[in-house]
């Protein structure tokens, strides 16, 4: 009898697919104060509260995260999201310094006001005070498409900072503290600022800087935050997501980075950045969706129709698999994924310094549609054809498969460059990688490629990667580490604190 049960179990296990590790933010725990009285934990316990203010091509977000300093786990306290296309139009006399991917014009003043309003609304809805409760603010932007050069991002960052200042955030909450004494009383017991120095490494990785000190890709900071956020998010899963790793953020534009392995006896414990991602990501499914006529022809997005949540389990019933594969193949004929050639100064409309990347030995992997998105109209036409002949379920399935194939093609280029090692972990964040059935299809592709002995143990999908990364960046700047549950260091290895103290001395 026993034997039969074992046989049955192994027989069925062949058909049960492994589930991808998807991290969706849990709300902070509640503490009961007498009957019917519940207070959030962050009101009573030592929490490090960080606001991530991010203006992207599609959405502008303020996400408040709280890190329980006793456990090191991070929670999303509140999220305020507005569409970037709804920013107020430029007033007479204001200088337009850039635009989003869909052509929405931006001025410094309008960005400042949008950031201020989003930040204040988020705090108000969460019943928190910007001056008293907030510990740190991190600003970032993914709006780099229409900028002339990576340097122009400076203007944008100033506009973001001004928005925070006008909202009442003190400047000291946007920069690293000079010493432990400069930190608030609440943080000091958990800080290691008297033992280690912040050298610019976030989550145990040194950012890439060319010999000239110029950034190689305009959305460098986004890539840094996304990687840090995936490392933090992975703490909610069994995956040990420490160096070496491949982190990819599939927002409207693509960013992310690849880090190196670090030998256990190396005196410098930080990993180096050996690869960068840039170009288009969510803009590709957005183009397919715009062909349907169900969203605005210039500013519509796949979010408007399909939402941003992942779907697990169940069988797909959206039509003929051959039809779907044909459309996926046709879409990918327009999608260019490769190492960015050194002569290009833009790839997928993102300003890059590909020549410098090549000289510095950094693999810059780009995704474009034609040349600088010249073939997006072809994808709009394919979307129109799908909608005319089939239904929304078929379009949704095609979008999921197109995005999954993009993710796998990026991994393939990284494998060709010998940047995916046996002990590497791969992480995704951003709407065009973690919504719908994309995680499932990406996991299938990683299993097929046979890169790891246990592929599911090397792959993780994290929502709100940028916000989590901002919380972690705030922690790194304030030296609020957790030696017993480290984020820096190498997969399977110990905490790197002792080596950092040694270097500091």
Q: Could you walk me through the main structural features you see in this protein, from its secondary elements to its overall organization?
A:
The structure is a single chain. By secondary structure, the chain is α/β, with parallel strands linked by helices. The chain has 14 helices and 19 strands. The protein has helices spanning 2-13, 108-125, 153-166, 220-233, 283-290, 302-306, 321-332, 354-359, 376-389, 392-416, 431-434, 438-449, 465-477, 497-504, and strands spanning 21-23, 30-32, 38-40, 47-55, 59-68, 74-83, 96-99, 105-107, 136-141, 205-206, 245-250, 253-259, 271-280, 335-339, 346-347, 350-351, 363-369, 425-429, 459-462. Strands 1, 10, 11, 12, 13, 14, 17, 18 and 19 form a nine-stranded mixed sheet that branches. A four-stranded mixed sheet has the order 6-5-4-9, sandwiched between helices. A two-stranded antiparallel ribbon has the order 2-3. Strand 15 (346-347) and strand 16 form a beta hairpin. Helix 5 (283-290) packs across helix 9 (376-389) and helix 10 runs parallel beside helix 12 (438-449). The longest helix is centred in the C-terminal third of the chain and has 25 residues, at 392-416. The protein is globular and about 65 Å long. Residues 1-7 have low confidence and may be disordered.
Number of strands: 19
> Unreliable stretches, pLDDT < 50, 5 or more residues?
1-7
Radius of gyration: 23 Å
Distance between the termini: 67 Å
């Amino acid at each position: 009898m026993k034997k039969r049960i074992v046989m049955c179990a192994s027989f069925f296990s062949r058909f049960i697919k492994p589930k991808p590790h998807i991290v969706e933010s849990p709300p902070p725990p509640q503490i009961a104060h007498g009957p019917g009285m519940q207070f959030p934990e962050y009101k009573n316990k030592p929490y490090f509260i960080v606001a991530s203010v991010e203006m992207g091509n599609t959405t502008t977000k303020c996400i408040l995260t709280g890190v329980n300093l006793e456990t090191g786990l991070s929670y999303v306290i509140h999220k305020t999201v507005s569409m970037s296309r709804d920013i107020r139009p430029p007033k007479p006399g204001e200088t337009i310094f850039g635009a989003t991917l869909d052509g929405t014009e931006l001025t410094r003043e309008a960005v400042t006001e949008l950031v201020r309003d989003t930040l204040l609304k988020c705090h108000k809805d969460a019943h928190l005070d910007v001056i008293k409760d907030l510990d740190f603010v991190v600003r970032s932007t993914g709006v780099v498409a229409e900028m002339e050069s990576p340097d122009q991002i400076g203007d944008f960052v100033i506009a973001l900072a001004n928005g925070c200042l006008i909202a009442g955030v003190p400047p000291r909450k946007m920069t690293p503290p000079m010493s432990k004494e400069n930190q608030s009383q609440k943080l000091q017991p958990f800080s290691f600022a008297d033992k280690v120095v912040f050298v610019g490494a976030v989550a145990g990785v040194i950012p890439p800087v060319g010999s000239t000190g110029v950034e190689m890709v305009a959305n460098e900071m986004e890539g840094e935050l996304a990687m840090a956020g995936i490392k933090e998010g992975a703490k909610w899963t069994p995956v040990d997501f420490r160096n070496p790793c491949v982190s990819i953020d599939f927002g409207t534009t693509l960013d992310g980075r690849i880090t190196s392995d670090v030998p256990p006896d190396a005196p410098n414990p930080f990993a180096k950045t050996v690869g960068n991602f840039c170009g288009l990501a969510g803009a590709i499914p957005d183009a397919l969706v715009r062909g349907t006529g169900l969203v605005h022809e210039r500013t519509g997005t796949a979010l408007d129709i399909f939402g941003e949540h992942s779907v697990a389990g169940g069988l797909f019933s959206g039509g003929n698999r051959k039809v779907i594969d044909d459309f996926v193949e046709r879409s990918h004929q327009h999608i260019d994924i490769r190492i960015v050639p050194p002569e290009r100064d833009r790839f997928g409309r993102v300003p890059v310094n590909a020549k410098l990347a090549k000289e510095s030995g950094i693999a810059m992997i780009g995704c474009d549609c034609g040349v600088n998105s010249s073939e997006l109209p072809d994808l709009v036409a394919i979307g129109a054809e799908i909608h005319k002949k089939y239904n929304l379920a078929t379009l949704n399935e095609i979008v999921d498969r197109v995005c999954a194939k993009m993710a796998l093609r990026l991994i393939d280029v990284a494998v060709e460059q010998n940047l995916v090692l046996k002990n590497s972990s791969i992480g995704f964040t951003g709407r065009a990688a973690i919504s719908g059935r994309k995680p499932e299809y990406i996991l299938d592709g990683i299993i097929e490629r046979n890169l790891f002995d246990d592929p599911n143990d090397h792959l993780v999908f994290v929502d709100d990667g940028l916000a989590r990364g901002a919380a972690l960046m705030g922690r790194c700047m304030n030296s609020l580490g957790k030696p017993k549950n480290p984020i820096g260091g190498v997969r399977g290895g110990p905490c790197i604190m002792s080596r950092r103290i040694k270097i500091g001395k």
